Known about the structure:
Shape: globular
Number of strands: 4
Strand order of the largest sheet: 3-2-1-4
Order of helices and strands: EHEEHE
Strand content: 15-25%
Distance between the termini: 25 Å
Amino acid sequence: MFQVSKILIYNTAANNSGALSILQSFYEKASNDCDNEYEFILSLPVFPETKNVKIKRFPWMKKSWLHRIYFDLFIANRIVREIKPDEVI
Length: 89
């Protein structure tokens, strides 16, 4: 029996140029993959949610390095514990 995988895409750095185009490409492939569930953790980019792709945005983390450190040390760990993904990318 086939089991659906939960995949967490953690990319809070991508907001322009090459990193953003790679993220967009990955989002398109994920939204067409109906066999798995995806959760994207992003800062500034805006993508629509689909049936199998959920988006969580945290634009406030880009305000300063202190915001980013706080997010990475406390919020990101909590998100991973809540989602319980099979894979983290």
